[in-house]
Design brief:
This protein is of the alpha/beta class. It contains ten helices and 13 strands. The chain has a seven-stranded mixed beta sheet. Strands 2-1-3-4-6-5 form a six-stranded parallel beta sheet, sandwiched between helices. The longest helix has 15 residues.
Length: about 350
Amino acid sequence: MSSGGPQPLAADAVARVLVAGASGYAGALAAELCWLHPRLELVHATARSDVGVALRELYPQHTAPIALEELDLGSLDGIDAAIVAYPHGASAPVVAEMRGLGISVVDLSADFRLRDVPTYERWYGPHGDPDLLDGAAYGLTELNREAIAGAGLVANPGCYPTATVLALAPLAEAGLIEDVIVDAKSGVSGAGRGAADEMEALKRSEDSRPYKVGGHRHMPEIEQELTALAATGNGSGGRAIPVTFIPHLLPFDHGELVSCYVSGAGDLDAGELRALYRDRYAEEPFVQLSDQPPGVSSVRGTNLCRIHVTAADGGRVIAFAVIDNLWKGAASQAIQNLNLMLGLPEGEGIS
């Protein structure tokens, strides 16, 4: 599959890896990061379209000298791990085949993120393999590291849930969220390659707009994770945390900002809030706390999440978080998770 020389591994590979769905934005970046990874051997990058096309022809910013192949599930002998970047619905049957072969999988679709099947089917339609749900670890590394390290299947979070849940986790664990309004903004790459023409028009017009205002599919994922954090911390004893979530597209390529307006934190002042967050994230290499509200350009092309939290009038807390939606919101977080699954340092290849 490579036409430009051997992969630049720094030592013996610990796993032979396949990336499925490498013609999309997130899958292509995942393939590029695997190619540049010092301990992962990228054996196949597959796609359902653009078969035979070089990755760097589709995406000149990528350097991997690999051509896209058609996925052949009957020829996966010797593959140890896979990153699957298919849309919801299409992913589950492929993941099931791979797991049946003993392949460790990080799935970038929504197919294994929601633990409740009726909730999944309300937002996405019939589930392709619900029997795999019980064994799937939710792949927000900073909150679920131990489960990810022992899992054979990891459900990579959505980009909006990654930023939102990291912004709010310390408050949720402390039982300090009664309800939250999330004002989320993403660059146009968040709409996916299939919407490229429409998104280029948005950029040219320098316009911005909200979308999915009646309910975005990432909302139940955010509610699920915040409620679980509250139940396992000092929180609500199982009370669901209500979330109002409104996403917006902005006319730039990469980046995501969430502004979260929280009720229920009582009389905590800005210093106490910063201490709560500092204690929670002190040992997290990819979460940085900021003294000022952060901008999206500060994390572009990284696996970082940068957070600022402050008290506001009326007893509200405001928490801001920024990530690169294709990196920490998708591909580099997949590498972070795969590193843990394979016993590697979680920052290998993405630091």
